[in-house]
Structure formats: C-alpha cells, structure tokens
Amino acid sequence: MVGYAFMGAAHSQAWRTVNRVFDLPARASMVAVCGRDEAKVAAAAARLGWAEAVTDWRELIARDDIDVIDVCTPGDSHAEIAIAALEAGKHVLCEKPLANTVDEARAMVAAAAKARAAGVRSACGFNYRRVPAVSLMHNLIAAGRIGAVRHVRAVYLQDWITDPQFPLVWRLQKEKAGSGALGDIGAHIIDLTQFVTGQRITGVTGLTETFIKERPLVSDSSGLSASAGHATGEVTVDDAALFIARLDGGAVATYEASRFATGRKNALRVEVNGENGSLAFDLERLNELEFYDATRPAAEQGWSRILVTEGEHPYLGAWWPPGHIIGYEHSFTHEMRDFIEAVATGADPTPSFEDALQVQLVLDAVARSDASWVSVAT
Ligand code: SOE
Question: Residues 323-368: pLDDT tens digits?
Fold first, then answer.
C-alpha cells in the first residue's frame, strides 16, 4: 500500500479483516506500506498491521513477493504510481477519484487495457458501492422493481472546512487534489448513482463555489485534521459543487457536493424515483434501505424501511445474524473482498479504470459548465 493517512487506515482495516470474514480463493497478506517520512511510515506500519515500511514506492513494484499495489496517496501521484505498477505486472487498486485530470485518467486506462491483456487487473476504490444497502438498491433497480427511472437526487455533504481558519491541507490544493468537493465527494455520488441506476450521465450543467479563498498554511496535518500556521495561501479548489444531469436511460438527476453544509458531517443521500416505485439511501442509516412500492394496492402503499442485515442481502451472509448492524469500514472490507475474488479468478474487478475515467469526464464537464452561467436579467 502506498500512503497511510485516512484512506490508508481504512484500507488497512479492510486488508486486515477480509480473509477472516470471507472465504476467498486467495489470501491477502500485508507485505509493506510506503510513505515518504521514515519514522512516520514505520509507526504507521506497526499501527496498521503492515510487516514492513519503505520510503520509495518503486521498491514495492520491484519486489517479487508483492502482487497488488493499493494506491492511497493524494490524486497527484495516482497516475505515476498506478501506471508504473501495472507496467511491472502488479494488480492495482487505486483510490478515487482515479486521477486529477482527464488526460491522466486516459493514460491510466491505456495502461490498464495493456495490462489486462497480460492478465493484470485494476480497479478504482469507490467504496460506497459496497455498502450492502447500496448493492441492494442496485439489485432492485436492475430487477425492474421500480420500473423506468425518472429522477435521481443525490447529495454528499460535509462541514469540516467551514472554519475560515482551517488550514490549507492538500485537499484544498488543485495541484494535489485536482478539484475540491467536486472530485472528492461529488465523484462518489456520480459513481454511486450511475452504479445503482445502470445509467450513465450524458450531459451536465452546474456551478462551483469557493467561499473561503485564502487560508492559513498547514503546520501539522494527518487525515482530515490539521493545525494552522501564520502565513496564508490561496485555496485553488471548489468548496461546493452543484449540478444537474441527464442520464442515458432517460432519467434526470440533481447533485450537490459541499464541504460547507454546516452540521452535515458525512451525509451521503440518494433517492431514485421510478415509474413503479422509489428507493432511498442515507449513509447515516447505512443498514437501511427505504422502498416505496407503487405496485401494491393503493390502500397499502407507503414507504417501508428494509433492515439490510439478512444473510441473503449482499455481503451480509459472512457477517452477523440478522439485525446485527455493520458500519462505514465494512464497505472497504467488501471492496477488498470483490477485488481479491476477481483477481484470483482471473476476472476484471469493478469499477474498472474505464468506469472511473467516465466519472472523471463528468467531473471535467461540471467544472467546464461553470463558464456557461446565465445571469438573470436586471
Ligand atoms: C474527505 O472528504 C473524505 O475522506 C473523502 O476523501 C472520502 O472519499 C469519503 O469517503 C469521506 O470523506
């Protein structure tokens, strides 16, 4: 694994757990983790369960005892590491968004296609697909339970940078992160809604906003927490992104991604309205899926709450008895489960780099659409 901050910790938890919960055709062993600071990466290896710590990711891809490279670094290094790893014959799991630019994402897709021909696999880590209630939503829509999809309504709201004194961490720098709320959390709801509906976005128009344009420089940082120094620097990404979209199956959609939704810590909500019913998911209640079945007799219609903890629900047969709920981290364990199974059986894991490039193209279209803003006449 390359990188060991928030996503590195989440992935490590999943790699530690996956073999113990799921019966898989191959076992993951946590060979080595890489970071630039020798002391910090050694401490991370000990804390997260990696056998070794190294300071140059090239060392990892040169080793014969490593088959998979898990890329958990900021977006500016995804392309370089993933392409080199694929060329070295390593399977690659790369955090989202796939890259910082469409050009980088295209280069990664080309490398993945070449590698695939040699049996080398790759996938992008959109973990929310693997929340059982989201998988169930996908299955119900695919089975036609709500009929043709008309509306998709998706929000992903956070509030961790509402304080203007919160420092200029890498997620607020375009050269490191590519974009702000748009790529970091907007990418999740783009992927998630396309996954559950089975439809792809064909066009968008939207706006982005940066509320706080200057912030103190970081003096110390880890994950999403950081402390500020005295000097300041420019925020070069969006704080919020809102857009509407058309999907290729005829649905229309609205999206909102913000880091300024005061009081909303990590609120990802999706509702899909179809001709015969609706489905709604809320990450704060991730063990539940709301279902409105409009094919029932009118007198019996109403929103029902499915407690998604049955053994027959996606992934849950391997966990606890019905009613014993799971959490955020399980989505990553499921991600590793699906990745290992695909790699071990010679199949292509999903979402592929091609799927992730398509998300990148949507992000790019939203960012460009900002320029076509229509002012209200005075
Ligand atoms: C920060 O906004 C972040 O960690 C994202 O980068 C993750 O993808 C999301 O799952 C939680 O929030």
Answer: 999 999 999 999 999 999 999 999 999 999 999 999 999 999 999 9
Q: And the tokens for 88?
A: 């070295």
The per-residue b/e assignment along 148-175, b for 16 or more CB within 10 angstroms, e otherwise, is: ebbebbbbbbbbebbeeebbbbbbbbbe
Q: How far is the CA of 301 from the centre of ligand 1 (A)?
A: 36
Which residues are near ligand 1 (CB < 6 Å)? Answer: 6, 158, 184-185, 224, 266
Ligand 1 centroid, distance to 186 Cα (angstroms): 10
Closest ligand 1 atom number to CA of residue 181: 2
For residue 45, the CA-to-ligand 1 centroid distance in Å is 22
Residue with tokens 């309205």: 273
Q: pLDDT tens-digit profile of 170-215?
A: 999 999 999 999 999 999 999 999 999 999 999 999 999 999 999 9
* CA 68 remoteness from chain centre: 19
Whose C-alpha lies nearest to ligand 1, atom 6? 184
What is the CA angle 6-7-11, rounded to 5? 125
- In contact, 192 and 270? CB cutoff 8 Å: yes
Q: Shortest CA distance to 89 belongs to which of 57, 121, 58?
A: 121
Ligand 1 pocket mutation pick from 100, 134, 184 by most atoms within 8 angstroms of CB: 184
Number of H helices, E strands in the chain: 11, 15
